[in-house]
């Protein structure tokens, strides 16, 4: 954790600490008012880090001994648990890695939409172009707009979309949970969202070939559903693919989308592209027999779609920001909707809190 004085703090606890204990060190870095800038220098390399932001209150982090790893483990705030100590706080984060290879950051809504923010990465002495990359993040009133859209969608299909919206103790909209996070507590939610769509996909690709563009030296991968076992078989893959459930689609890491230690490169290329196609409902679209190949304007055209992702992108200033795990999948030359920025020659990363207007 980074302290206000610009040094790293490493919280720890004894091996006897079996219950989470509050980290009391002052790790909060106060920000100024609207339009102000707070400068922060990172004293060393960090990997898979987060820059956390909270409005009107500080977030509470805990430490506990983890016998599985034989080391202390940090307990971070939960966006979904109403009993969490930070449940009534408006907060969010930017994901960040800064190593000898460069800097990578992204605006992520894979788990939830909370405190609105955007990012701008400026290269040091750029060689080509302006050396500036940006992900604007969500518009200032995006949470209300997203929830209005989700409520309308519940009225159309009767599913739990409107329940993704959470209010604070005063009844004010606070955050929007992703379907995957909501399902972690409500496992039967959305279970029939893709049932009919799956039936049509499996029927179509019994007689047609589904081509997965690996976008690598593995080239195009031919896939087809075999009537004998009802599974999708892809040439050269280390596994076959069953019809995914809604839970598996939202998470992209279980069932046919699980990547085991022994998985080959073909399977590793198929998983993100196939899962993204289900989220965006492009498998039955004209041209959807090649994945990825369609532009972002073709995403979410079917009722069997991730409507959370659809509305998140709709109310982003530039349509960029991860709304599910493999939202960085895009056709060659297509628009990057993931909201990530990176460079091997980093200068300044600017994080804007409050929205893009």
From TrEMBL:
Pfam families in the record: Glyco_hydro_64
PANTHER family: GLUCANASE B, PTHR38165
Name recorded for this polypeptide: GH64 domain-containing protein
Residues annotated as domain GH64: 1-340
